[in-house]
Design goal:
34% strand; 6-stranded mixed beta barrel; alpha+beta; Cathepsin D, subunit A, domain 1; 4-stranded antiparallel beta sheet; 15 strands
């Protein structure tokens, strides 16, 4: 038994394998065993890999896709900013990436510094940079809303959270992957733009 060098790590005990003079090690068998172990690990890891987001890639027939939709943010003097949002019923606030916000804030105006701190799914707490309040339009239907601003790292531009879905009285039919919204201007049926197979909007037939 020999004490392993610490190298800045907690000390551990290393045990050397005892060898016998008449013991024969076959290099070919060792290599074969090693390859079998590596292959087993690789296959196991690949079986546990799941695509979290599939938008923008060629999809399997039965893939579940994030619900994407184009919306318009309206500034105080009618300035329009178009952005593709991700509908996220699990988000307790609507949030926009600060990288995108920096490019459009001069058109939106109506934003103020924010004192809110946002808790991520992994428990990390990130301060919000700003809050914006104003009019949001989707397919000719409008509602008043607000969003927080923080750096998403470029993973997305806008998460359309539960408060905004509530403001538009959104109802998601998961069987057809369509969302009915109601606001100033009437009721509309939105199709998931991740599919890109048909028009994104259709007026609801009353």
């Amino acid at each position: 038994m020999h004490k392993a060098p610490q190298n800045g790590r907690p000390s551990v005990l290393a045990r050397e394998k005892e060898t016998c003079e008449d013991q024969y090690n076959n290099p070919a068998e060792s290599m074969s065993l090693k390859n079998d172990v590596i292959m087993s690990i690789d296959l196991s890891e690949q079986c546990n890999i799941v695509n979290l987001y599939l938008a923008g890639e060629e999809q399997p027939q039965n893939a579940y896709l994030p619900f994407l939709q184009n919306i318009t943010l309206v500034g105080p003097k009618g300035e329009a900013v178009w952005v593709t949002v991700l509908f996220d019923e699990g988000a307790m606030v609507s949030v926009i990436c600060s990288l995108f916000f920096e490019k459009v804030k001069h058109r939106l105006r109506n934003w103020i510094p924010s004192a809110k701190r946002l808790r991520m799914a992994n428990g990390t707490i990130i301060p919000s940079c700003a809050t914006w309040k104003g009019e949001i339009e989707i397919a000719g239907t409008k509602a008043h809303g607000e969003f927080e601003v923080f750096d998403s790292g470029g993973g997305w531009k806008f998460l359309f959270g539960k408060p905004m879905l509530h403001a538009f009285k959104a109802v998601h039919d998961y069987q057809t992957d369509e969302v009915d919204i109601t606001g100033i201007g009437g009721t509309r049926t939105l199709y998931n733009q991740s599919l890109a197979r048909r028009p994104s909007v259709e007026e609801a037939i009353e």
